[in-house]
Amino acid sequence: MLNNKPCPQKEGHHRESWVAVAAWLEAKREIVGIRKDLARAAASRPGEGRRQAVEGLRRRLHLLEARLAGSCRGAAARGETVPGNALCREHELDPLERDVVETLFALQYGPVGPEGTPAPTLREVVALVGASDQVIADQCLSRLLPSRRNRLVSSHLIRFDAGDQAQYCNNPTLNLTLDAAHHFATGTTLEEDEDEQEQPKARSTPAPDVAAALAREEVFLPGPTMTGLNFAWARLMNGPVLDRWGVTRGHAPKHLALLFYGPPGTGKSLTAGCLARALGKGLERVCCPDILDMFVGQSEKNIQRSFTRAEHDDALLVFDEADVILGRRGAIHRASDRYANAIVNTVLTALDRFRGAVVFTSNHVESLDPAAANRISLKVEFPAPDAELRARIWRAKLPPETPRSQQVDFAALGRDYLLTGRQIASAVLIAVAAAAARIGTQGDDARVEMADLAAAAESEAGGPGSEDRPRQIGFSAPGRAEGGC
Questions:
Q1: How many separate domains does the chain show?
Q2: What is the pLDDT of residue 181?
Q3: First CA to last CA across the chain, in angstroms?
């Protein structure tokens, strides 16, 4: 989730940054739209009409790309902020990787069509980036394949999401991480983002309790979830006492395995990172692309290395999207079944030998293998936030230094829009960008209006009960909670 701390730059820098982002997004969305039309035209029935349509779209695409490139060069020469320059320079992205990141940003933080778009899949991104050149499309596909060699994944710029292993292996969806989006737009990174910080810069003394640690980082969770975390905290902090009292002798497990489960965007991974920092431990975070490998036996070795590193460094081990690697085992009908079963077996064996703490996060707890669920010491549910929690998150994500209208009503936003914490962070980003785009006409009077936040919330909501649906990216059909105005 986006950190609400102001970035350490001169006053007014972010306002200027968001003006540049708004102008850049408008141009990039038009390019993405042309690429979609070009991909559809190229896939149509061969003939003279198709050839003329493809050539016309290619000319239009090259013109728009050249115009945007020229605008960016001019802005850079004037010392102005150019979206993506700082991110690409820091990570040394080549033109193809930059195009992938730019395309994902345009899809994730703005409308491409009147109906909005869901999270793009791997094949859709490849089709958009390589719309005008099959060679580029082939290169893009080979570079984006989920593996530890994917630089965009290993740099925590993008992540793959899928509801099950078959979908993950065949055509996973892609998301730009929030830290990468913030870095892309403002030129600065989030200091304590859970997706990027694999180890704290310095080991700190443990916090007095888990509630204080979460409050310090402005993580808001419901009462039952806090009760489960208090149990986990007591177990983590009182290991020597349990040893002295004899309950860990014999066949008792030497590890503590926690399962954080619930809908996407409810703070599971964020809480795991906060927990590690509160304990004064390092954080060994493992995402599925860091484990699954195309070479036989390499995935199993990656799993073993993760457990070994965490135990050696006394770090909190976190497996995000655990349902992908701990899915229910079954009969072997094809090679992929044998591969999936081997992955689960390896994780369970490594867990039995592990001496430390591990957190598994999952959006699909019902799909976990029974043997894996049986090894979980404590299961903590992260439900979608209620209206009061949503209002607190809205307030935290829009800090006092952000210029906003007095009509902004956080209670109404929390009551009317059924959003998760991650969706609220994305909505705030969209609303602030919209407000910043008005600086050219309103000057210093430009500020975030209630209408900006409401429009962004509607684009994220997608209708009543949206917290139970997969997260929508970009603008979608308006929707409010029942009784919303």
A1: 3
A2: 82
A3: 27
Report pLDDT for 3. Answer: 36
Q: Which of 217, 190, 197 is nearest to 316 (CA)?
A: 197
Domain-embedded: residue 107: yes
Give residue 411's domain range. Answer: 387-468
Same domain membership, residue 226 and residue 154 = no
2, part of any domain: no
Q: Where are the alpha helices (DSSP H) in 314-380?
A: 335-353, 370-374
Contact 187, 91 (CB under 8 A): no
**Its pTM surpasses 0.70:** no
On whether the CB atoms of residues 110 and 29 are closer than 8 A, the answer is yes
Strands 158-161 and 173-176, how do they pair? antiparallel
**DSSP of 217-277, one letter per residue?**
TT----HHHHHHHHHHHHHHHTHHHHHHTTTTSTTS-SSEEEEEESSTTSSHHHHHHHHHH
What's residue 473's pLDDT? 36
How high is the pLDDT of residue 4?
A: 35
Instruction: Summarize the confidence of residues 143-170 as an average pLDDT.
Output: 66
**Two tokens, residue 385:** 């936030």
Judge whether 477 and 461 are in contact, CB under 8 Å: no
Q: In whole angstroms, what is the distance from residue 458 CA to residue 166 CA?
A: 32
Q: What is the DSSP string of 368-402?
A: B-HHHHHT-SEEEE-PPP-HHHHHHHHHHHS-TTS
CATH number at residue 398: 1.10.8.60
* Residue 202 resides in a domain: no
Helices 95-108, 134-144: inter-axial angle, 10-degree rounding: 80
Average pLDDT over residues 100-128: 72
Q: At which of 364, 381, 398 does a domain end?
A: 381
Are both 138 and 243 inside the same structural domain?
A: no
Contacts of 2 (CB under 8 A, 6+ apart): 178, 182, 190, 397, 425, 426, 428, 429
Render pLDDT for 418-472 as a digit per residue (tens, 0 to 9): 999 999 999 999 999 988 888 878 777 789 999 999 999 998 887 444 444 444 4
Q: What percent of the chain clears pLDDT 70, i.e. is strictly above it?
A: 80
